Amino acid sequence: MSNELKHVAIIMDGNGRWAKGRGLERFLGHRKGTQATIDAVKFGCDLHLEHLTLYVFSSENWQRPSKEVDYLMKLLVEMVHKELPDLMEKNVKLVVIGNINRLPDAPRSQLQHAIDETANNTGMQLNLAISYGGRLEIVDACKAIAKEVQEGKLSLDAVDESVFAKHLYLKGAPDPDLVIRTGGEFRLSNYLLWQAAYSEFYVTPTLWPDFTNEEFQKAIEFYNTRERRFGKVLHE
Ligand code: IPE
Ligand code: IPE
Ligand code: MG
Question: Is 58 in the pocket of ligand 2 (CB under 6 A)?
Answer without folding.
Answer: yes
